[in-house]
């Protein structure tokens, strides 16, 4: 993220776009976002964008084509006095609903966070439970309400496979060196362009391609902490975060996380004042399992806390494209000026789960993450990288995403309505603002592991709350997946699940 400037806003915008062109985010001959779209992306008036584009035309950076829009000129003219951006500088600097916890009865209170998590570091051991749960989901021919994965039928996998097959035929003797970190240059450029089109200033030089977001998270944690160190996590948190801590022999402190606003920043500040913490791991956007969108004021405050304590923050933004609102949400990365945010994301939840392509924007830790990528897994396969780059360049990713978001939004509404209809009094749900999972609080006497086993016997899978914490704080919570099309089988499964809950309650 660029530093604040006293220059007029249109000039700052022009400088940012020109810098993106110089870095290769927008290639010669490519169209840049329309005036109206740029206005929405950057949060400025149409008049400001018009002035910025006129300035860029005068500099020889872009050109206007009647009835077509604005395009990058074949050879942008370098000008004196443009903002200084040293090559590779991004290696050391970063880029910068009401809760709706409506119970099944009107006026129900928001879902509480159960016993407040302790602020004492604890060893982590959740992998066995998660592995056994995932195996049962795969092994059983069951209704996949407990699956952590989106329905693959929603993705354009045939088209992507066509690109992959064509690439494999063209490059039968692929050279391993083409796979080396940081990754395929065209895919990196397409990722950077995606951020730029959504109003985020990202330098392609900072991006490291990984095998999914899980590897990005593991590499990021390994880059900033060592075995025995203490890491702060949300509570509840996505179990992949706990897996990373467990795998590296670290300890965790859970901080209560509100289902509307995210991690309790007051509690986090108290922890940081009393404990030596190596890193903080969060999911600010559409957190799994709560589904909230962290308010921008909270994002800014979290980054300020990180800067005050020189604390690395690992941001899992894997659901960034699956928003239900009109615009893509901000990320911690956009407010980070000191390179402390290690931003992790992937295409696994929005485009192709099978190809496992993710990336990290590790800020000041970029060189270490690239080195660890090389030492840990050597490469990320090239064919999937190039296939996704081709799809992003030639096909309608935005059209696909619009359909996907509409579908998920309607599915979330439908599943909440069915839970209200079939589950007993005392059941409450979150109101996701994006993603495809729903967090459900059951009556306190219901044990989610007992429910998990009873449901599995009926051909239904669920995600028991035990997986999302190191302790038993969420023993009467479950996570449900609503990405699969609604069928009579799905409705029957929810009805059966509600009956099981009623018996246990």
Automatic annotation (TrEMBL):
Family membership: In the C-terminal section; belongs to the class-I pyridoxal-phosphate-dependent aminotransferase family.
CDD domains: AAT_like (cd00609), WHTH_GntR (cd07377)
The EC number(s) this enzyme carries: 2.6.1.9
InterPro entries given in the database record: Aminotransferase_I/II_large (IPR004839), HTH_trans_reg/aminotransferase (IPR051446), PyrdxlP-dep_Trfase (IPR015424), PyrdxlP-dep_Trfase_major (IPR015421), PyrdxlP-dep_Trfase_small (IPR015422), Tscrpt_reg_HTH_GntR (IPR000524), WH-like_DNA-bd_sf (IPR036388), WH_DNA-bd_sf (IPR036390)
PROSITE patterns hit by this protein: HTH_GNTR
UniProt organism field: Paraburkholderia caffeinitolerans
UniProt biased composition (Basic and acidic residues): 101-112
Pfam short name (any one): Aminotran_1_2
Region (Disordered): 81-121
Record keywords: Aminotransferase, DNA-binding, Pyridoxal phosphate, Transcription, Transcription regulation, Transferase
Full protein name: Histidinol-phosphate aminotransferase
Gene that specifies this protein: hisC_9
């Amino acid at each position: 993220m660029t530093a604040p400037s006293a220059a007029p806003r249109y000039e700052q915008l022009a400088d940012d776009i020109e810098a993106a062109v110089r870095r290769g985010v927008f290639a010669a001959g490519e169209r840049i976002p329309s005036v109206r779209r740029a206005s929405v992306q950057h949060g400025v008036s149409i008049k400001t964008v018009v002035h910025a584009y006129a300035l860029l035309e005068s500099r020889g950076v872009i050109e206007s084509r009647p009835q077509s829009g604005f395009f990058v000129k074949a050879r942008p003219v370098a000008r004196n006095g443009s903002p200084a951006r040293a090559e590779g500088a991004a290696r050391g600097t970063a880029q910068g609903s009401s809760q709706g916890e409506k119970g099944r009865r009107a006026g129900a209170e928001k879902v509480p966070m159960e016993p407040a998590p302790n602020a004492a570091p604890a060893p982590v051991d959740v992998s066995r439970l998660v592995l056994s749960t995932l195996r049962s989901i795969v092994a059983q021919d069951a209704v996949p309400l407990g699956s952590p994965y989106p329905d693959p039928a929603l993705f354009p996998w045939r088209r992507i496979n066509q690109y992959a097959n064509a690439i494999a035929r063209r490059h039968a003797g692929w050279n391993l060196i083409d796979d080396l970190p940081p990754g395929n240059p065209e895919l990196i450029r397409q990722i950077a362009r995606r951020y730029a089109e959504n109003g985020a200033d990202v330098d392609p030089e900072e991006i490291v391609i990984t095998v999914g977001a899980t590897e990005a998270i593991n590499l990021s944690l390994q880059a900033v902490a060592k075995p025995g160190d203490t890491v702060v996590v949300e509570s509840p948190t996505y179990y992949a975060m706990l897996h990373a801590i467990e795998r590296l022999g670290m300890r965790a402190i859970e901080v209560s996380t509100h289902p509307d606003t995210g991690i309790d920043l007051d509690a986090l500040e108290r922890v940081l004042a009393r404990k030596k913490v190596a890193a903080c791991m969060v999911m600010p956007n559409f957190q799994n399992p709560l589904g909230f969108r962290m308010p921008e004021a909270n994002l800014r405050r979290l980054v300020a806390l990180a800067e005050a304590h020189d604390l690395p923050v690992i941001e899992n933004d894997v659901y960034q494209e699956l928003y239900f609102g009109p615009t893509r949400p901000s990320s911690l990365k956009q407010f980070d000026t000191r390179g402390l945010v290690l931003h992790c994301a992937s295409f696994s939840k929005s485009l192709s789960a099978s190809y496992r392509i993710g990336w990290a924007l590790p800020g000041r830790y970029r060189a270490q993450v690239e080195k660890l990528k090389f030492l840990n897994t050597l490469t990320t396969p090239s064919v999937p990288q190039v296939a996704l780059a081709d799809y992003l360049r030639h096909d309608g990713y935005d059209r696909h995403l619009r359909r996907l978001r509409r579908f998920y939004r309607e599915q979330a509404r439908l599943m909440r309505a069915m839970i209200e209809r079939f589950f007993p009094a005392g059941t409450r749900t979150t109101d996701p603002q994006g993603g495809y999972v729903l967090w459900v609080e059951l009556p306190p006497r219901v044990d989610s592991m007992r429910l998990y086993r009873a449901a599995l016997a009926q051909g239904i899978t669920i995600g028991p709350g035990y997986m999302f914490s190191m302790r038993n704080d969420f023993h009467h919570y479950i996570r449900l997946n609503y990405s699969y099309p609604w069928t009579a089988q799905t409705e029957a499964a929810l009805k059966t699940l509600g009956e099981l809950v009623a018996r246990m309650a």
